[in-house]
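Records of this kind hold a single protein each, on a pair of labelled lines. With that in mind, the following record should read easily:
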Amino acid sequence: MLDIEEGFHGTTRLDGLKAAAIFRWPGPIHEGKGECVLVLDRRATSEQRAALLRILGGDDTEPGATIFQIFSITCDTVHEPIISDIDFELDIDARTARARIDGVLETRGAPILNPVTGSEHRVRIEQPEGFEFAVAEIGRGWSKTDAPINFELDDTYGQFAEIHLCQSGIVR
């Protein structure tokens, strides 16, 4: 899920828009054979939708520079984009999130809990040279997707991060 606070592609402003990319692979990502569907904010203009498709498809990105470019080359099936309202709330520091796209996706995130005390357990990953994020808070996640890609994840890995991207990757 993306909540674009401020951004652009060429001269097209993307401030305030939301988008989602849903991926699924039958095995390890690097083995390919994945499928993808992109969900674009209904509020976006046709120019903004075109820009979001190029960004999420990794079309204008240096090879290997962003997660979107890398994931795009591992997907054999790319479904038609979905235009929808996207309801998304995120609090990175609290490690909580909730998103809903009617008929497509429901997901939520929560902090990891200490199995003995039940208190929140904070874990963070820093990647000085990573292409996914620079720093991410780690938590738990639940997701259920419907057509065109169907799967359900229950109490699994989740990450919460703010990213700043350009065609060369993470801006540090």
Q: What stands out?
A: Residues 33 and 76 are 5 Å apart (CA to CA).
